[in-house]
Amino acid sequence: MKVWNRSWGWLDPVRRLLWLPIVVGVLAGVAVAATTEASVEETTSAVVNTRAASALPNDRLDLINDLVAVAGLTTVTNPVARENGLSGPALRAGLSVERVEASTLTRLTLSAPGDDEFRRQVLSDFLAAAQDYLTPETPSPSLVAARAEERAAITAYYEALAENNGQNPVETFDRLSQRIVDAQVAGNTQLQNSLESFVPRATRRASEFATITARRSTAEATVRNLATSEATQTRGGPAALSLSFIASTAEPGLTDSVPLRRGLAAGLAAALVVAGLLLLLARGRRLR
Questions:
Q1: pLDDT beyond 60 at 36
Q2: Residue 235 binned pLDDT confidence (cut-offs 50, 70, 90)
Q3: In the chain, domain spans
Q4: Would you list the DSSP string of 181-234?
Q5: Considering only CA atoms, which of 3, 1, 8 is closest in space to residue 279?
Q6: Quick one: pLDDT band at residue 237, thresholds 50, 70, 90?
Q7: Cβ atoms 41, 255 nearer than 8 A
Q8: DSSP run (H or E) holding 45
Q9: Torsion of CA 185, 189, 190, 194, to 10 degrees
Q10: Average per-residue pLDDT in the chain?
Q11: Which letter does DSSP use for residue 244 in this model?
Q12: Which fold would CATH assign to domain 40-136?
């Protein structure tokens, strides 16, 4: 029959080896901390010149507030993030928009992994997306009229094709002319006369279709030129914003405590494991 020894003498081995879990814990903590890389928070900043947007200071201040609001919109930031290989939440968390002291300038700052060139590209893409969101396209009356003419010309083009069984009347006329020449060469006067009876109508349709085709080409070119011109004026005019980049910085971030925290956790775990083993061994000696 086993008898429990209720004296505390069985703890003597533990007291004598108390240094062991401490040493093991310190060594484990140092090893883990040394092998854990510290992260550095790298940022890139740029100043947005809002003076190009308006001659009125109040309007420029409103623009700063608008940019702050846009920086939190998923409809603006998510496409920018996807284009640059980031997640939307990560971009919004690392992006900040603030007024530069008492001026009417805006400072954009981005904290994100990657080099300075990458962060500059992300900031440029964000500003372009913000401009597109804040200044949606408003076509001029000339462009609206040109687009209406383009639609009418395209409709007339396909109606003319439908009247000729889906075939190009100009190509139909060319084939008819070739068949007349072939009949003439073969000496088939009857076929030649029969084919020549279709020439007036084929000529008229070919001429009309050529006019319709030219109308469509002109309308499409007009729309294309007007749209390009207005897009250039919008981006280069009052709504245009420019970026002036500031040198990037690399400063210790909150995540620099990761090596320390991991080292402490590993050291404590190792010390507890060793202490537990010592207690188990000592308790085994307690049994008689």
A1: no
A2: very low
A3: 8-37+256-286, 40-136, 141-231
A4: HHHHHHT-HHHHHHHHTTHHHHHHHHHHHHHHHHHHHHHHHHHHHHHHHHHHHH
A5: 8
A6: very low
A7: yes
A8: strand 40-49
A9: 70
A10: 76
A11: E
A12: Ribosomal Protein S8; Chain: A, domain 1 (3.30.1370)
Structure tokens at 275: 């202490």
Q: Name the band, by pLDDT with cuts 50, 70 and 90, for residue 2.
A: very low
Edge-to-edge strands, sheet with 242-252 = 95-99, 106-111, 40-49, 242-252
Amino acid found at 149: E
3-class secondary structure, 249: strand
Block residue for tokens 């004026």:
233
pTM score, whole prediction:
0.45
| Predicted confidence band of residue 162 (pLDDT cuts 50, 70, 90) | confident
- In this prediction, residue 165 carries a pLDDT of 85
Integer-rounded Cα radius of gyration of the chain: 40
What DSSP designation does 38 have?
Answer: P
Q: How many residues does the chain have?
A: 288
